[in-house]
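Q: How would the structure tokens look for this protein?
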Amino acid sequence: MVVRKRRRANKQLGERTHGHGDTKNWRGSGNRGGVGRAGSHKHKFSKYWMTFGNKVRMHSFHIKGKSLNVGQVSQQIEKWMKQGKVTQEDDMIVIDGAKVGLSTLLGSGDVKGEWYVKNVRVTEKARSKIEEANGEIADEYETAGGETKVRDPSAGAGDAE
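A: Here is the predicted structure in token form.
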């Protein structure tokens, strides 16, 4: 036979606040003290004292253009030619990153044909694949302000300074 203890239902009877502290703490969200960082320089100061008053610079996460792999560009070339974004001079396909909306060329995939790439950051792996396929990469690029600059080879592969 199992012996069960009976729980008293009137446990808090006789107590004014029934275990909720002050009477107003029993209502709504209780004694929560605000939402988020509310009261960070008042009643929650000890929690936020290290960060209060520090200025944090917001970073822009919007990057003009997109990053594509070499294989993805190979698949898109025919479509871009029909749209007039990519041209063909002699045997080379000229890919202008500003016209296509491409900011960085990554190295995954295969290069189909000979490419001349300009106004695009190119990773080392992508650079080697394009050069293996007898392609070329322009060392000049245009900034957002329309200024033409030359890439510094000592700055690293594909870094625009």
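The domain at 66-155 is CATH 3.100.10.10 (Ribosomal Protein L15; Chain: K; domain 2).

The first helix runs from residue 45 to 48.

Upvote if useful.
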